[in-house]
Amino acid sequence: MENSKDLPCYVAFNSQHCTGCGDCAKVCPTKAIRIKGGKSLLLVDNCIGCGLCINVCPQGCITPTTIPAQSSKHTPFPIIFVAPVLYSQFRDATPGEVLKGLKAMGFKHTVDMSYFFTMFKRATEQHLINLGPPPEGRPVISTMCPVVLRLIAFRFPSLIDLLHPVLRPVSVMVKDVAAFIANHHKIDLRAISIFYLNPCPTKMNPKGLSLPHGSPYITRAIGINQIYAELNKQIKALQNSPLDKTLEPVFEFEEPPTGKSLLWGISGGETAESTIKNKLCISGMNETLEYLEKIELGLFKEYDFIEFRTCREGCVGGSLCAVDKYVAKNNLQQHVDRPKSKERHRDNLLKDLYAEERFFDTLTSAKMEKLFGQRKEPLSIEDLTRVNQILKQLPGYNCSGCGAPDCQTFAEDVIRERASISECSPLKTGDDHTKGE
Amino acid sequence: MGSLVKIFPIKHRDFIHAGKPSIEIKNILKTLNTPREIIRRVAVCGYEGEMNVVMHARNGQIRLELSNTMIIIKITDKGPGIPDIDQAMEKGFSTALDEFREMGFGAGMGLPNMKKNADRFEIRSTPEKGTTVRMEFATGER
Lengths: 437, 142
Description:
The complex is a heterodimer.
Chain A: E1 11-13, H1 23-27, E2 33-36, E3 39-42, H2 52-56, E4 62-64, E5 77-82, H3 95-104, E6 109-112, H4 114-131, E7 140-141, H5 146-155, H6 169-185, E8 192-198, E9 218-223, H7 224-239, E10 279-283, H8 285-296, E11 305-309, H9 325-336, H10 347-355, H11 365-372, H12 381-393, H13 407-415, H14 425-429
Parallel strand pairs in A: 5-6, 5-8, 7-11, 8-9, 10-11
Antiparallel strand pairs in A: 1-4, 2-3
Helix pairs in contact in A: 3-7, 4-6, 4-10, 12-13
Chain B: E1 4-10, H1 20-31, H2 36-56, E2 60-66, E3 70-77, H3 85-88, H4 98-102, H5 110-117, E4 120-126, E5 130-138
Antiparallel strand pairs in B: 1-2, 2-3, 3-5, 4-5
């Protein structure tokens, strides 16, 4: 495997059961997979962690690089950050019961991420007001989905300037919450282990997170489907037994979300309870690519905000979710319709935080490109001319017989000396008389 | 010194494929690691030019020429031509059919936008023959 150190690796290939069918190579949006010697091979530099290959592999030999859920039991002070999509995985348990179930599993504190996402939403509203009316700086693109960020840096660099220039909420909350909890319990920051409970492989590697450098605490990611069976068991147990007071929320960020704050896990949830009405909510990798292309052609400037999720229907469609996305959507709706508790945020406080530039990083376009832009080596005009010459020789079937997803990628691989033209099987057998059909 | 020429056909009223040539041009520029600000301008100009052909002309083509210091986009069509170019260059002037306006096109910003985004902009038109728009973008030494 081609593996550059210091680069995040979101998925792992088990070559034992790989049949070399090439389905993963075809579906990859950054063309990061080749078949070599009858087995899949990941070009780590080009992987953005979208998880499409995990879903498409008929043999199940592609797995996210998560850690076993049990490893939390071997740390002295585990706390868990919960992606709000988790609540959608349960039909008969309330969000509050789900969070208690996690505590029953041994996590000292649970952190409901939507608590911080609501702050982020407020920052987005203010940013749009500050920009003035469209088309100035429009459409602003959401930075919630990390795969979208990497996709933009990798394939649509001209759109970096449209990204909402705030710190991603994950980076804010990890810093704040760890310090707060350490202070409250009078313990060393280093004693705290942070776990992420996630619906997708993209946050699996700490290097992929914009964490402050030299953080004393460690972070690890667990897939929802890895923890689901045990969590379900714990929830059932606590539903059948008298309430254990030790499982009750202690801090405000441990409180379960209610109302539209529950919707962050589905497409449209980010702006569901906001003042932003002039928006498009797009989900699915193909749709995301199509709209990013169009925005790059100068379209949709009349819209304020575009919410992209590369998983279909939003995070409920993530490859590490335990239940089907449409079932999950319905579950969420049931939770939303329950009576609403008090608002968790005072609007004035959020306004003050914004004024203090609490939400902003010095996230310049150049820095963005560096952080997320794992770029391919550029070709020269001469190289491109040679690519075109090779393409003219190739049959143009996009059959993947060579191991590349399509003829264009294969021709570029030949120029980059990653492949030899003799690997094109139709060309070898002389079966190219129907070229162009 | 290298140079590369690519020609893409544009079909009248083909809204399904409109934009595809500009997307392909964008991808070529990305492979060459062209600065993103230039990619953005070329993409906007290419697409506006394509849409003009799709809406107003009969068939045409978009031609990309790359050299080490320059990107040249030339859009040629066989169409009715533009009787008054100065008027066509005014912001908001449009002769687009109502059906196109209902699709969200024909705001009369195409040509002014192209002129604004290109480093050099030339337009020539002959009534009943067609129109040619040529745009240059300086890339500096590659």
